[in-house]
Amino acid sequence: MTTIVLPAPIAPIDAPDGEPSGAESLSDVLLKSAARVAEFADEATALSSPTVFWQGSAASAYVEHARGFARTHEPMGETLRRVARGVDVFAQQLRELQSEHTTVDGDITDYGRERAALLAAVGEASADDADRIGELEERARLLRARRAGIVADITSLQTRVTANEEFLVSLFTSADTASEAAAPDGGVDGDILVLAAGMPTGRGPRAVTEWWAELSEAEQNALIAARPDLIGSADGLPASARDQANRQLLESDLVELTQKETDGVLTADERKRLENARATRDALRTADDYVMPGTDDRPGGSLWLYDPDAFDGDGRVAIAVGDLDTADDVSLQIPGIKTEMSDAPGYVQNAADLYESARYNGDGSSVATMFWLGYNTPEGAVDWDTMTEGRAIDGGERLADAVDGLRASRADDPAHMTAIGHSYGSTTTSYAATDHDLAVDDVALIGSPGAGPAGRASDFSVGDDHVFVGRNSRDAVAFFGDEGWARKDWVEAGLGMDPSSENFGAQRFEAEASNRGDGRNFDDHSRYYDRDSESLYNLGRIVDGDAGAVNEAEQSYDPWWRAAVDPEHDRTPTRDDPARSDTGVNG
């Protein structure tokens, strides 16, 4: 007699206790309290220098007392900020764990239903029906394998729930006395400080990736809460960890600086920081709230870089639409002159539109599109920094480092990656791809005033088959590049070769705006990401890795005896061409 062994049932598991929204409210209260303490410390510092009319032992005693007050309150404010950030980390983890519990609970229910059906089928089966018995044995084998997977998920979930709760307990007990809160280290657990000091920042992003992977989840969460400034900007860490840390920094800035603004004590530098924080908040909301048109797909946003004080307050920021840790296709959009942190909302909308283009007309691959402002862009259309390459040289190195960090964090699951440089950002991208072996698969230069050090597309690390150029024939900025026999090295100025020219040898794609101007103008310079445009359609194909679907354009050329000729100048732009897209979206 054949015995069919059924796997044991699985008992339901309790959901993780707690309300994430309640924890987030507590975090907000703590951050506001931290702002008040910081104000006290600032005031004490400001009052610690008596006027010239007050001298003697009383004045000295006052100064010492005021400075001591400031020294005490500064770490207390940081302690409150750290605890607030930690509570926020706990809340986010709790929300994820509760969502995961819902998934596991559903798996348990489905398993129970399948097991009951198999049990009924075994009871009805005839022992003489060998085929039926074989089928039931196979079902039992698959069900045993499924049970093993669910049990593993349950174990992992329970371990993570315990770790999250222990993290919260450790967070509160590390600063539950006045002396701990006022300590110079802000009450941070000494082991966490040791871990932070152990980050191998000088050994490259791959070493950082490996270091992070060796930490427990509780240690990772503790580091995010204690040192978000370190974690949020560390190349080589998963985008999810950087996002979590940078969101903590952003929320802390918004709460504390808004409180100071309300109290009327905001300094000029703090006001600029608050403006940058608010712009980042608005841009991040655009990414978080974006829903792929016609679907329920909400890819979510990621705050990959947040540095509001960089470059004398212009700031550095990088925000993505989509999951940078898992997307099959990843792009970085590098902006040009006059771009500052306050411009982030508009550029993130461009990233969302590029995401739509890549997905609508793509092969079904997952996508992440990131606006990357990680370098100091020139401040004006007509200034020395715009006409020379110093900012591009520095930016190219920074861009290459950023891409190396993304690559290292996904060494076991590499994405198809594209760098899209617009305007002066194309010169910056050229330096990265020429001087720093930019580790992307494809490069696209749009509205380029010059390709920097590259004389030909073959000078790029990706090879000339993977260098694409989009140039609106009426874009005035795109005429700044050298063409034919006129070269920047003759006059020691300019930004390099026009990459759309035949001498450069890149693959030019159609990029005319449907509403382009009648002659050269600067408005067309900002139309490369317009919805339903030729440019955005083709950029989407490049991001998707489908170079064969790109609509090619003839390269411009210089007959030497007269001005350069652009064959695209007389072509009628295409918009909503069904041959390009069956969705009515060319970008």
Q: In words, what does this structure look like?
A:
The chain is built from 16 helices and eight strands. It is of the alpha/beta class. The chain folds into two domains: 20-261, no CATH class; 301-570, Rossmann fold, CATH 3.40.50. Helix 10 packs parallel to helix 11 (344-360). The longest helix has 68 residues, at 57-124. Residues 485-493 and 576-587 have low confidence and may be disordered.
CATH superfamily of the largest domain: Alpha/Beta hydrolase fold, catalytic domain
Structural class: alpha/beta
End-to-end CA span:
65 Å
The helix/strand order is: HHHHHHHHHHEEEHEHHEHEEHEH
From the spread of the alpha carbons, the general shape counts as globular
The count of strands amounts to: 8
The name of the CATH topology of the largest domain is Rossmann fold
Which strands sit side by side, in order, in the main sheet?
A: 1-2-4-3-5-6-7-8
Number of domains: 2
Helix content: 40-55%
Strand content: 5-15%
